[in-house]
Specification:
- The protein is of the alpha/beta class and about 180 residues long.
- The protein has helices at about 1-5, 20-35, 60-85, 105-125, 145-155; strands spanning about 40-45, 90-95, 130-140, 165-170.
- It has one domain: 3-Layer(aba) Sandwich (Rossmann fold), CATH 3.40.50.720.
- It has a four-stranded parallel sheet with strand order 1-2-3-4, with helices on both faces.
- Helix 2 (about 20-35) runs parallel beside helix 3 (about 60-85) and helix 3 packs parallel to helix 4 (about 105-125).
- The protein is globular, with a radius of gyration of 16 Å.
- It starts with a helix and ends in a 6-residue tail after the last strand.
- The mean pLDDT is about 90.
Length: about 180
């Protein structure tokens, strides 16, 4: 949000993605501000409980899947009418942890696995509308995450016009 606050060409709206009412309100604001059009949707929210399954509660599961999966699905569904008008791009963020699993991350990685499946299926479903859907799987990055931003910019650009259903790892080789 710091960058957006310094650039009048960048807009953002904060919402609790586990609330369908808040998601719909954000889409309404975007629709009004941008003449019912949306070019790019980046689904980047996530919550990661770090503890073994033996210490998990169903509330941990609910929160991980509400934020990481349900929120992504809800905002995507509600954004589709705006994205169709522009033949928009959807970029989902998953996790490199899916390819290099570790203990104590079952809820987080389970949710992120769902995101990769949605990415590939939605790429197939939305291609007939001229839309593209891709995902980025960031790893642990100790920088301001410019690497991820550069990949997102590429995927959102016309340079990636023939790229859909792809999963881009930005993890310094962690997943291999």
């Amino acid at each position: 949000m710091k960058v957006a606050d310094t650039n009048k060409n960048i807009s953002y709206y904060a919402a609790d993605l586990s609330s369908s009412d808040e998601v719909k309100e954000v889409i309404k604001k975007i629709s009004k501000k941008f003449n019912a059009k949306l070019d790019i949707l980046v689904n980047s929210a996530g919550w990661c409980p770090v503890k073994p399954v033996s210490e998990m509660t169903i509330k941990d599961y609910d929160m991980a899947f509400d934020i990481d999966v349900r929120g992504l699905v809800d905002i995507t569904i509600n954004s589709l009418p705006l994205l169709r008008k522009t033949k928009g791009v959807i970029i989902n963020l998953s996790s490199a942890g899916l390819y290099r699993k570790g203990p104590n991350l079952s809820m987080y990685l389970g949710a992120k696995a769902a995101i990769e499946t949605f990415t590939k299926v939605w790429a197939l479903e939305l291609a007939s509308n001229g839309m593209r859907v891709n995902a980025i799987t960031p790893g642990a990055i100790k920088t301001p995450i410019y690497e991820v931003a550069n990949v997102a910019l590429f995927l959102a650009s016309g340079e990636a016009s023939y790229v859909t259903g792809a999963i881009y790892s930005v993890d310094g080789g962690m997943s291999i």
